[in-house]
Amino acid sequence: MTKLEVFNPATNEVIERLDYTSNEDIQAQIERAHKAFQQWKKIDAHERSAKLMKWAELIDEHQDELARLITLEGGKPLAEAKGEVTYANSYVKWYAEEAKRVYGRTIPANAPSKKIIIDKFPVGVVGAITPWNFPAAMITRKMAPALAAGCTIICKPAVKTPLTTIKLVELAHEAGFPKDAISYIIASGKDAGDLFTEHELISKVTFTGSTAVGKTLIEQSAQQVKNVTMELGGLAPLIVHKDADIDAAVDGTIASKFRNAGQTCICANRIYVHQDIAEAYTEKLIEKVHALTVGNGLESDVKVGPLIDEQAVKKVLTHITDAQEKGGELSRSIEEIQSLGGNFLKPVVISNANLDMKAMHEETFGPVAPVMTYEDLDEVIRIANDTEFGLASYFFTNDYRTGLKFFNELEYGVIGWNDGGPSAAHAPFGGLKESGYGREGGIEGIEPYLETKYLSIQE
Ligand code: SIN
């Protein structure tokens, strides 16, 4: 059987060769996870919590090793990769606590001789499919609440970045989780998606990735009315209003736009700046963007690593050339953008952007910041909402009325007000519209792994 080759996107060298898990082995693994569930669901919440705490301790101890793996297989600059390990571990720590806070309740009944009691139960075996852009955080964000709730979980990491998952699962076993309570498979998205959605012993499918794939998984899961959580695509608008602190808005833009070289679902995709401050904002943005060091994430001072592969580079270049053809002004030439070769692209600001450009209505997933000006607040909110996506949005204003108007009217699940980095383990991350459903993080993030039952007692 051919092996999976894992590449370093900074050098295009193969760094590991792994065996694929055969479909028969995946089926057997699902059966073992189901058997493990019969035991794991009976373990009391305090013990589940203690195991998650132990896992968190081991992740902290192995932060450098995990960060290096993230950089090697995903290209993320090392400092950012360390930040991802901390972020990933904050989910483990949060759900170690939440494991102890899965509360039921009682309801006053409609007869004195009756009592109604509500309790929550783990859904069962979870099949998780995760993306390459956060090889650690998207794993723990699913695994930690699943295990905290009493579920068992099998994860299928992205084939581009399986090594971080393998290490995380190894550490979980070292922390004392039963082998079949938390495991991974090496498989294509299609094989895992088919098996997870079709196998009757999988009770829940959780997926982070594209809206197109999410729709297929939802459709397939519908055959068994399977519980799903979907974290899908985004097209985040970032709005800078005329009363914003321009320096803070520029820093917030950089934080949002260039995280992981622009390859996150919540990266600002399209920027709208009020015409009164457009010149000052764009000038400062270009200065800071051009100061970002691009290179191999293992080298010190690198702020922007490579894109994940050649295909990603091609797509981003299409957005840049399309914008140029439609009247956009590039802050650096196409030749300079590509001057480092390989999967590297130097970040670019596109001023004079307009709504016809691909970069303003398709997810770019790269280091490109298109800036369009606007005059009217209601009009920019309308434009920001004029999409099937509803994951993240950002706005910058120092006026509280304008801020609350944005919050009330922007149709997005995650909203940053003067904040280019709104993600946190204690907040419910997730999208509206075609960006998915279900929330990950916060007290909401354990709910998708629980079923509610009620008991009506007649004396
Ligand atoms: C994502 O790209 O979907 C994850 C971003 C985050 O958790 O901040």
TrEMBL record:
Family from the record: Belongs to the aldehyde dehydrogenase family.
Name of the molecule in the record: NAD-dependent succinate-semialdehyde dehydrogenase
Domain Aldehyde dehydrogenase positions: 3-454
Signal peptide: none
PANTHER family on file: SUCCINATE-SEMIALDEHYDE DEHYDROGENASE, MITOCHONDRIAL
InterPro entries linked: Ald_DH/histidinol_DH, Ald_DH_C, Ald_DH_CS_CYS, Ald_DH_CS_GLU, Ald_DH_N, Aldehyde_DH_dom, Aldehyde_DH_Superfamily
Keyword tags: NAD, Oxidoreductase
PROSITE patterns registered for this protein in UniProt: ALDEHYDE_DEHYDR_CYS, ALDEHYDE_DEHYDR_GLU
GO terms of molecular function: succinate-semialdehyde dehydrogenase (NAD+) activity
Residues of the active site: E231
GO biological process: gamma-aminobutyric acid catabolic process
